[in-house]
Specification:
elongated; mainly beta; single chain; 263 residues
C-alpha cells in the first residue's frame, strides 16, 4: 500500500517542499492558449498505514501547474526559471492507499479501509527565502471527511541550480477522519481476539513534524528532488491501539519534467 502522495496544484506555480511557490501574474495577451505544467514521479518509503511500526516502498506521483494562458489572460509565468512570490490561492490533493489486514497481519480483525483521494485548496504566502501555507482537503473518494494541513519552509540556495528547504508540518482531521484511521469498534475488538481494545478516536491535531527537502535543476525542463519527513502522532492518533509507533518517517526521491504546450 502507498501510504500517501501529496501534491499542490494551482495557478500559483505550486510544488513540493524543494521548489519555490508564488502568486499568479495576470496580464492581457493576444496569443493563443498555452499550458505549462510539471510532473514528478519517484519512489517513496513510508509507513504502510498510519501508526505502522515499519515502512514499505512504493511509487509516488505529483504535479504542479506553472502557467496558463487562456481567453486573453495569463496566469503564472512561462519562464521556467521564474521564482514566484507573494500571496496566492493553491490547490492540494492527497492519495491514501487502502488498509488491508491481508497486507498487514498485525491488523487482523480490523475492518479494511478503502483507498481515499482528498481534494481541496488553501492559501500560501511565499518569498525567495521562505513560504507559509495552509490547506483544507475533503475525502471526495474514500473516507469522506475533512483534513487540514499547515506548514512552512525556509529556502537556502547554495547555487542557482540547487534549492534546500526545511520546515514544520501539522496535520488536523475531523472526528470522522480520526475514527476511520485510528478508531476501534466493539465488533473489531472482538474480531481481533482482544488484541485491540475499543477506542473512540476524536479529531483535532493528529500529527506534527518537520520536512527536509532538496531540489536540483538539471536544465530548464528536468530536475531531481528528494525529501525526508519526520512525524510524531499526537492526541488520539498517538493513543490509538492501532498505532504501534507514534514516530513516523518518510523518504522520497523523484524526477521532475516540465512541459509547455501551445494550442
Amino acid at each position: 500500500m502507498i501510504r500517501h502522495s501529496v501534491a499542490f496544484l494551482a495557478l500559483t506555480a505550486c510544488a513540493a517542499s524543494a521548489q519555490d511557490l508564488g502568486t499568479p501574474v495576470f496580464s492581457s495577451q493576444s496569443q493563443g492558449p498555452a499550458l505549462g505544467f510539471t510532473l514528478r514521479g519517484g519512489v517513496e518509503s513510508a509507513p504502510s498505514y498510519f501508526g505502522a511500526e515499519g515502512n514499505e516502498a512504493g511509487p509516488t506521483f505529483s504535479g504542479e501547474l506553472n502557467y496558463l494562458r487562456l481567453g486573453g489572460f495569463t496566469f503564472g509565468n512561462p519562464d521556467p526559471l521564474f521564482v514566484p512570490t507573494g500571496l496566492g490561492a493553491i490547490g492540494s490533493f492527497r492519495y491514501i492507499g487502502e488498509r488491508d489486514d491481508d497486507d498487514d497481519s498485525e491488523l487482523r480483525g480490523l475492518d479494511d479501509v478503502d483507498a481515499s483521494l482528498e481534494i481541496g485548496g488553501g492559501l500560501r504566502y511565499a518569498t525567495r527565502d521562505y513560504q507559509i501555507f495552509g490547506v483544507v482537503r475533503y475525502g471526495a473518494v474514500g473516507h469522506e471527511s475533512f483534513v487540514g494541513e499547515l506548514g512552512a519552509d525556509v529556502f537556502v540556495r547554495p547555487s542557482d541550480r540547487l534549492t534546500l528547504s526545511v520546515g514544520p508540518r501539522a496535520l488536523f482531521g475531523d472526528d470522522d477522519y480520526a475514527s476511520t484511521y485510528f478508531g476501534v469498534t466493539e465488533a473489531e475488538s472482538i474480531a481481533s481476539g482482544g488484541n485491540f481494545d475499543p477506542f473512540d478516536a476524536d479529531g483535532g491535531l493528529l500529527s506534527s513534524g518537520i520536512e527536509f527537502g532538496a531540489g536540483y535543476r538539471l536544465n530548464e525542463n528536468w530536475g531531481v528532488d528528494a525529501a525526508v519527513t519526520y512525524e510524531k502522532l499526537r492526541n488520539d492518533a498517538a493513543d490509538s491501539p492501532i498505532s504501534a509507533d507514534d514516530e513516523q518517517f518518510k523518504a522520497s526521491i523523484g524526477v521532475t519534467r516540465r512541459f509547455t504546450l501551445g494550442f
